[in-house]
Structures are given as structure tokens and as C-alpha cells.
Design brief:
The complex is a heterodimer of chains A (160) and B (187). Chain A has four helices and seven strands, in the order ααβββββαβαβ. Chain A is of the alpha/beta class. In chain A, helix 3 packs across helix 4. A four-stranded mixed sheet of chain B has the order 3-2-4-5, with helices on one face. By secondary structure, chain B is an alpha/beta fold. Classes of the chains: A alpha/beta (160), B alpha/beta (187). Strand 7 of chain A pairs antiparallel with strand 1 of chain B.
Chain lengths: 160, 187
């Protein structure tokens, strides 16, 4: 024990210094990066099971302006569409909710006429709950002059 | 007590001190005189950037979600119709999940595909792709007559899971068509 203490004392005058500036730079960069990423993920994409297609003839989403419409499945009643979520805002899947959804999408379409609408629906939702949403998107594009609704189906490519 | 102890310890400490001094002089001869440990920041920044790049790549896994273009014909607006245009009768493809009635907790195991008209009925998405590809201009076989934008309507039955609709859609899109629309059974 005593020898340990002595050997340490031998190097006492040496000073260890680290350049904190660059480290803080990097750490702040990381913080900003994660803050941005986590916000985008939580607001646009709701957690749901996307349909899986083996070796899909699909493309990776580009960087163009987009609006993500999530269709969640009701946990208590499998197969039933619970609600549609657009940027964290819920819309019920009925006549009234679909009208509000069409209005909401039309507002975005007016700002970006080349807006791509990404339809993220749970794999177990039955099609009769998707149809009213498709109709709402169609009426939204009809409402805005010169806008052609580009609807993209979001799925998982299980091969990649 | 204490003074007795120190008097006993003094010769011991003195001996130790001399031994230390000896060792120190030996080391001075053999090693560099000044030894300053420094932190190598370059490697640390290397590692941090590696982590940064790793996480950026890892978050790309979220982007593994791929998209397929769905054509939504804008039929609500008053479109200008060409009087000389030959009306294209769309190919209607029906999709039905197995056991559509029962309240099951997950996606049904299978689904059936039907093509309305006098076509050989496909049993799998792959055979649907083959059927449609053979009938496309420039498709497999090279004897097809349908252009790429030949209208195709997917008509899922009531209670069809979205996954099965998407799979059929994918099979149709893979055959090379780009004018596919979704329409419910009652519409």
C-alpha cells in the first residue's frame, strides 16, 4: 500500500489537461441532433405495425414535402380503425372526422401543391376503414385548384 | 505512546527514503527525465465522430419504411373529357382475406385474389404479377396489349386486412402498371 502511494507521488508535478472546447462542441452537436430527430419521429409517425411485403417493388421516401396520415388499429377491436393521426392531431374515422381531415390536408396542399401524402396504416385494419380516408384525401385535392394528391402507401420491405 | 512509535519508525523511514533515492537515480539514467502524460484528444474526437455517424446511420432504420405510389384519380372535379377517347374498361382485381367474419386478433393467415373477367384466376401474388405482366405491352412474352397506364382497380372485400390489400397492390405494381386505384366493394 505504501509503495503505491509513493510511486504516485513521484509523478505529482505532471498535469493532465484536456481541451474542453472541442468536446463541448461535439456534445452539443449530439444533443441538438437527438432533439431534432426524436421530435420528427414522434410527431409524424405513430407506433403501429406496418404491412410487410416481401421484396416490395417500392422506393425509399425522398426528401420532398410530405404529410403523414397514420391509421391506428383499435386494440380492443382488432381490425377496426381507431383514428387517423396527422402530426399528433387525432381525427375520428367517421363522416365528421373525415371532413375535418380533408380540410386539414387541403390547408397543407394549398401551401405545397406538390405535397406527398404518406398513408401509414396498421396492417390489421380492415379496408373499409381506409376507404373513407382515401375519399377524404381525394376530396381534399379536389378542393385545391391545381393540386393533384400524390398518395403514397407506406409499408415495410421485409427483404431489406 | 506516540513519541515512542515515531522514534521506532524513524530509522525504518530513513532507510526507505535512501532506497527510494537510489531507485530514482537509476531511473533517471535509464528513462527520460521529464515524463508528462497527455490525453490524446484526436482519438477521442475520432471515437465521438464514429458514434455520431453510427447513430445517424442507425436512425436510418426508421426510413426502411418504403413507399408505393398510389394513383388517386381526381374524379370529383369537372374534368375535360376527350370525346374521341376510347373508354378503358379497368381490370378489376378483388382481394379477400380468409375468415373475414371472425374477430381475430391478428392478420389472417392468407387471402385470395380474383380477376374479374375471363382470365386464368391467380392463386398467389406472384401468379397475379405473371398474369398482368404477360398482358402488358413490353412485358414478359412481349405479346401484351395493355399500356402501362391501363386502369387497374383493386376492390377489397369487406373485412380485408390492409396488409393483404398492400400485398396485392405490390404484386400489381411489380407487373409494371402505374394506374392502380383502390375502391371499396360497395363503391
Amino acid at each position: 500500500m505504501s509503495t503505491l502511494i509513493h510511486t504516485r507521488r513521484k509523478h505529482a508535478p505532471t498535469q493532465v489537461e484536456s481541451n474542453l472546447t472541442s468536446m463541448i462542441d461535439v456534445v452539443f452537436l449530439l444533443i441538438v441532433f437527438f432533439v431534432l430527430v426524436s421530435q420528427v419521429v414522434s410527431r409524424e409517425a405513430e407506433p403501429l405495425d406496418l404491412p410487410e411485403v416481401p421484396d416490395a417493388a417500392a422506393a425509399v421516401a425522398g426528401e420532398e414535402s410530405r404529410l403523414v396520415v397514420n391509421v391506428l388499429s383499435d386494440v380492443d377491436q382488432p381490425g377496426v380503425g381507431l383514428r387517423a393521426m396527422v402530426l399528433g392531431q387525432p381525427f375520428s374515422i367517421d363522416a365528421e372526422g373525415c371532413q375535418l381531415l380533408a380540410k386539414r390536408v387541403a390547408v397543407d396542399l394549398e401551401q405545397h401543391p406538390d405535397l406527398a401524402i404518406h398513408l401509414r396504416a396498421d396492417r390489421e385494419v380492415h379496408f373499409e376503414w381506409i376507404q373513407p380516408i382515401l375519399d377524404a384525401l381525394r376530396s381534399a385535392s379536389a378542393r385545391v385548384d391545381g393540386a393533384e394528391a400524390k398518395v403514397h402507401l407506406v409499408l415495410l420491405d421485409s427483404a431489406s | 505512546m506516540a513519541p515512542v512509535e515515531t522514534s521506532q519508525c524513524v530509522p525504518e523511514a530513513a532507510r526507505f527514503e535512501t532506497r527510494r533515492a537510489q531507485r530514482r537515480s537509476e531511473r533517471k539514467l535509464s528513462r527520460r527525465s521529464s515524463w508528462r502524460p497527455t490525453l490524446n484528444l484526436t482519438s477521442m474526437i475520432d471515437v465521438v465522430f464514429l458514434l455520431l455517424v453510427y447513430f445517424m446511420v442507425a436512425t436510418e432504420f426508421k426510413q426502411a419504411e418504403v413507399i408505393e405510389r398510389l394513383d388517386l384519380p381526381n374524379r370529383l372535379g369537372a374534368g375535360v373529357s376527350d370525346p374521341f377517347e376510347v373508354p378503358d374498361h379497368p381490370v378489376v382485381i378483388t382481394v379477400t382475406s380468409q375468415d373475414t367474419d371472425s374477430r381475430r386478433a391478428t392478420v389472417a393467415a392468407g387471402f385470395t385474389i380474383g380477376v374479374e373477367g375471363s382470365f386464368p384466376q391467380p392463386t398467389t401474388p406472384e401468379s397475379l404479377t405473371m398474369l398482368l405482366s404477360e398482358r402488358r405491352m413490353g412485358g414478359t412474352g412481349g405479346r401484351g396489349l395493355w399500356p402501362e397506364n391501363h386502369p387497374i382497380v383493386l376492390r377489397p372485400a369487406l373485412g380485408t386486412d390492409w396488409e393483404h390489400v398492400v400485398r396485392t397492390f405490390d404484386a400489381t405494381a411489380r407487373a409494371g402498371y402505374n394506374n392502380i386505384s383502390l375502391k371499396s366493394n360497395e363503391g
